[in-house]
Specification:
Elements: H1 2-5, H2 25-36, H3 44-54, E1 57-59, H4 65-69, E2 93-95, E3 107-111, E4 123-124, E5 134-140, E6 146-152, E7 162-171, E8 175-184, E9 188-191, E10 198-199, E11 209-213, E12 221-229, E13 235-245, E14 258-262, E15 289-292, E16 299-304, H5 309-316, E17 326-331, E18 355-358, E19 361-362, E20 367-377, E21 382-389, E22 395-401, E23 410-416, E24 420-429, E25 436-447, H6 453-465, E26 466-470, E27 499-500, E28 513-517, E29 532-537, E30 543-547, E31 558-566, E32 570-578, E33 584-590, E34 599-605, E35 612-620, E36 629-639, E37 655-659, H7 685-691, E38 717-718, E39 723-728, E40 733-737, E41 747-756, E42 760-768, E43 775-780, E44 789-795, E45 799-808, E46 814-825
Length: 833
């Protein structure tokens, strides 16, 4: 080993430096020669190669700089002092560079190969060190004794005996000892006279050493002091694998002169009348915030002098002090997590944290709340600001708080869809290994235009401007030739509109009314320009406004434009429903941003291939609330390409007529149809059985049905081996309808009909895959048939349904209608089944 540390190089300036780089000539050569002695440069690589050859360690320039520059802070756990120097920046140890306690620094080295340390000269640590292992080394070759001191970060309090374990190597007379240090205000770092004994076992070779550290209720530090480094040939100390086991006292954060007192505010759980009532910066009797929930930690009111700036900087990252009084929550070490369920139920964990919650807020509709505040909190704590449902205390929405933005004012925009809610600050998570605290101040709340007293004012705003009267329009099954016919401004009490309240709906339903405009002095603050459709939603029942039937909406979706308003307690939806069953096919909610004025909305109406109606559905958004819902609509405009209710003559289907004398039996009987001999595609037998019917099976209508048409109660029924119906008075229309079918080839549906005891018109209509009632044609008009009359209608693969409709002629008082012998054939009149 002596040969390893003998280097003939005169180091310029080495004797003048107060703390020389690690001592022995080879290392001194590597680091200092390159800086001070250009004549030594030719030998640099050679000596470094010898170091790698005999010890396998190499210096890492600046390797522990990040470790040394860390400000010493109280360690929370004994394991915080564990360090193997693989990541020096995480080690809670440092070179002591002030106070005259040492003359050298420890430096970081890395094991670069598998060369073993000489067992006799370098001990008691293990001779085999893994490649890549990092360790500290200090040393020198001066005759005057050199000392290096490595100190731990402070331990505030230790209530049990500790065990310090570490590995070290000594060479050429160097020694090491463990010190207990105190940082005294008057004299700085001071070593206590008691020096714990280092126990390396009986054989001090290839071993690690332990030291017993007695309990100490005063703050102290551990020190590893390398000394007796005074050999001119060089001596050194190496350190590695520091571990510490002990039990520390719980550490409370020192808030200095700041004091805390019970949080006694004016919050009583009553609804606020204005958002500004939630502003709070003193947290006294005028403040509308209080604590809620369970848990050992409770919110208090911090008063007096703010906490020390240095403490705030260490714990929160900012030294800007809060302007007390403030809301204050202290969380002791070991507190856990809160439940994610109802914040007050019995299943929450016992260590949950209490919330700081506002008095409740009532709004008449979706609201936007602007919340501003300042916050100070310990690092690692997770906080949220939430909207809590006022009655159930379930969490509605939560936004995470980023404390790093404070003490600048933090702003959150909270969107609420519930009507009764409170704002709450809550703790989501903390580091249970540390003491934690939260300080909240300067709370400001704004927005909520539909909240508080404003909601009550809006409720009467509409009735102050409009007089409700009954709507005069009604649904008369009027044909719709173009989309523009559904436009309506509700003037003249909507008598000309093709929108009306539906009849015969089950359950409680509110009726739409007409709001007739009153004369207003303040024209600038009025709603709408003329009369409106108005729904006042009593008893929490909905209101429906329905259009006449649209046969279909063709490709390129249509749009429904209207102006609407609600008082915040109601919602309007635009729906598409099946014309006959009123089954909802699609609904779109209409959202308005500001209930202080009406808004124009545009709703897409999708393509449909069946008869539909448009429906305006108004409903209240709260139940058993103190305010009723109100919805107003005006200026309806429908823009779409629709199927006309009555097609042009060019679109009539092919049909044929054959009369049978009065009193004769029906003309069409099985096997009696006139047919040609040409081959034709044969329709599906299943469709044939679906559409064929002779009404001879008692009261059976086969697979046909008869439903009531608007404003008429007449129905077809099986009677006397035919489908029979009577028309009279107000019951002027009757209809028989087939089941839905899918043809594989063109076909004809033959049938017989008879009109007696009056005058009636007969029509046959078809549905196609494009639209319902795609083709309607008149097959008989006026008078009686004077016996049975035969007809047929040609069906294509696109057709889906067939309707036979009888209507009382103008001026006629009554008529009897019969239908019989429905038979499906191919287009050559060959029976399909």
């Amino acid at each position: 080993m002596e040969a390893l540390f003998c280097v003939n190089c005169d180091i310029i300036g080495a004797q003048q430096t107060t703390k020389a780089f690690p001592f022995y000539p080879l290392l001194l050569f590597i680091i200092i020669c390159s800086s001070f002695c250009s004549a030594c440069m030719p030998g640099y690589e050679q000596e470094r190669s010898r170091l790698r050859q005999y010890l396998g360690v190499e210096w890492l320039p600046g390797g522990i700089e990040k470790m040394d520059v860390q400000p010493p802070r109280n360690v929370r756990h004994p394991s915080d002092l564990n360090c193997d120097f693989s990541k020096p920046e995480l080690c809670k140890w440092r070179n002591v560079r002030s106070g005259g306690h040492d003359t050298l620094d420890f430096h970081l080295f890395r094991k670069e190969d598998n060369v073993e340390f000489p067992v006799v000269q370098v001990r008691p640590g293990p001779s085999k060190v893994a490649v890549g292992d990092q360790l500290l080394l200090t040393g020198d070759r001066k005759r005057d004794e050199q000392v290096a001191l490595l100190a731990s970060h402070p331990i505030k309090c230790q209530n049990t005996t500790g065990k310090l374990t570490f590995t070290f190597w000594l060479y050429n007379g160097a020694r090491i000892e463990v010190l207990i240090l105190e940082d005294r205000e008057d004299e700085g770092l001071h070593a206590l006279p008691e020096k714990p004994q280092i126990d390396c076992g009986t054989v001090q070779m290839n071993t690690e050493c332990t030291v017993t550290i007695p309990p100490n209720l005063q703050p102290f530090q551990l020190g590893l002091r390398a000394y007796d480094i005074k050999n001119s040939e060089g001596s050194f100390v190496m350190l590695d694998n520091i571990n510490y086991e002990a039990q520390f006292c719980k550490i409370s954060i020192d808030f200095g002169p700041m004091i805390s007192e019970p949080l006694l505010t004016g919050a009583r759980g009553e609804f606020v009348n204005d958002m500004a009532e939630l502003n709070c910066d003193q947290f006294g009797v005028t403040c509308r915030w209080r604590q809620s929930g369970t848990g050992k930690s409770i919110w208090k009111r911090a008063t007096g002098t703010p906490p020390p700036a240095i403490m705030l900087l260490n714990e929160t990252g900012t030294n800007i002090e809060p302007d007390l009084p403030s809301a204050f929550l202290y969380i002791e070490e070991g507190s856990g997590l809160i439940s994610r369920n109802n914040l007050l139920d019995a299943d929450t964990k016992p260590n949950e944290f209490r919330m700081l919650i506002s008095d409740p807020i009532h709004c008449m509709g979706p609201s936007s709340i602007e919340l501003k505040f300042r916050i100070w909190s310990t690092k690692g704590i997770k906080l949220s600001v939430c909207l809590i449902e006022a009655e159930s205390l379930n969490v509605h929405i939560c936004h995470p708080i980023i404390p790093s933005l404070s003490p600048a004012q933090i702003q959150h925009n909270l969107q609420s869809t519930v009507l009764n809610f409170a704002i709450a600050f809550r703790i989501e998570n903390v580091n249970i290994d540390f003491e934690n605290f939260v300080i909240i101040d300067d709370i400001e709340v704004a927005g909520g235009d539909q909240c508080g007293d404003l909601a009550a004012k809006l409720e009467n705003k509409l009735l102050d401007q409009f007089l409700p009267v009954p709507m005069l329009s009604s649904l008369l099954s009027r044909p719709i030739h173009s989309a523009q016919e559904l436009s309506c401004d509700f003037s003249k009490r909507a008598i000309g509109c093709k929108w009306a309240n539906p009849e015969g709906l089950a359950g409680d339903v509110n009726a739409w009314e007409i709001g007739v405009r009153k004369k207003q002095k303040d024209a600038a603050n009025t709603l709408f320009d003329g009369d409106i459709a108005l729904a006042q939603l009593h008893k929490n029942a909905p209101a429906y406004l329905v259009s006449e039937t649209i046969q279909c909406v063709l490709q390129n979706d249509g749009t429904l434009k209207l102006r609407t308003w609600n008082n915040g307690n109601a919602r309007l939806s635009v729906c598409i429903v099946r014309a006959h069953s009123m089954e909802i096919l699609d609904c779109q909610n209409v959202e308005i941003e500001d209930s202080r004025t009406e808004e124009e909305v545009l709703v897409d109406i999708p393509t449909t291939d069946e008869p539909v109606k448009l429906l305006l559905h108004a409903e209240a958004t709260t139940k058993n609330g103190q305010h009723q819902g109100q919805v107003a609509v005006d200026s309806i405009q429908f823009d779409a390409k629709i199927c006309p209710s009555i097609p042009s003559a060019s679109s009539f289907a092919v049909h044929g007529v054959q009369n049978t004398p009065l009193g004769s039996s029906p003309s069409v009987i099985p096997n009696s149809l006139q047919s040609d001999n040409s081959p034709h595609p044969v329709p599906d037998e299943n469709v044939c059985r679906l559409l064929s019917c002779d009404f001879n099976n008692g009261e059976s209508m086969c697979l046909y049905s008869s439903t009531r048409v608007s404003s008429s109660l007449s129905l077809f029924r099986s009677f006397n081996r035919s489908a029979f119906s009577m028309l009279f008075g107000r019951n002027r229309v009757t209809m028989i309808e087939s089941s839905q079918f899918h043809l594989n080839a063109p076909a004809r549906l033959h049938f017989d009909f008879s009109i007696t005891k009056g005058s009636a018109n007969m029509h046959v209509c078809q549905d196609s895959i494009v639209r319902e009632l795609d083709t309607c044609l008149t097959i008989f008009e006026g008078g009686e048939t004077l016996g049975w009359q035969h007809d047929f209608i040609e069906l294509s693969e696109n057709d889906r349904k067939v309707y036979i409709i009888a209507r009382l002629s103008n001026g006629a008082r009554k008529a009897s209608v019969q239908i019989d012998n429905l038979i499906l054939t191919d287009i050559g009149n060959h029976k399909a089944c």
